[in-house]
Design brief:
The chain has about 300 residues and is mainly beta. The chain contains no helices and 24 strands. The radius of gyration is 21 Å and the shape is globular.
Amino acid sequence: MTFANADSLDRIANVYVQDGLKLRHLEFSITDTGLKTHGDKKYETRTDRFGDTPQLPDGRILLQPSGDALGQAQSWDYNASRPGKYWVELVYSLANGKSTAVPNISSYRIPTQLEATGAANRFRNVNLGKIYFVQAGKQKLDLKFRGKTPKVRALILRPAPEGEPIGQALNRSVLLHARDVTLRSTKVQYETKPHKNTIGYWVNVTDQVYWDFTVALGGRFLVEIYQGCGKGHGGSLVALEVAGQKLEFTVKDTGHFQNFVPRRVGTVRLAKGEHRFWIKPVKKTRNAIMDVRRIRLIPTD
């Protein structure tokens, strides 16, 4: 799909603000004079915009409705670039009455009640739940409605945590395991097989991953990453970022991508509260960057 103008209102799929680590959706209206947002003006307004392909480089998948978006059902065929978990968000308008959205996506079928937005041109984002693409390849996404039929503006698949919320252990350490990662990616993925149990397929420098976690007792922490890399593939440069601090290291050739060795790459200071720990490749030297099984934050004070 091609758009005539990158700034066109037709490109806008969703409007939100970033409140710390939280993403908060805003209701918005499309009028003859442009975009009007409703809600908190405290933060900078951001948008999810349709691209020339459904999936954006950070892993978001933005699907537009077919036809005039007023049919009783919507359906999309999507070729997933990787397995993984996604939040499913529906951006809709409903002038009056009530409706129930009934998704059928990767065996997920839990209905969600939709409230009226008050006008046909006023849109709201509602989370329909979390889905899991077990494997890459062809996916069928169906969406039906009971009751009033809303106008669908977008169906958004936003990368979701692969596992569970992460807290701090009694000894104050924090374990960021591959199974709990959030993937901001088109290719890198969590490989679930027991002999792998790793973040792998890291072939794109633009692919990034992160963990959200909570610190109850702050202080200084040593950062230890369990990293594997196939023979002849070492040398890539990678950045680790958390709480405004950055540590860089060069990937070590370990002889095999699932041969993990602990690498202590520096220390960071973390206050009590919520944090987001990023892995961001800087430079790739061979075909793949590395595999990562876990990161440990070890208290040093």
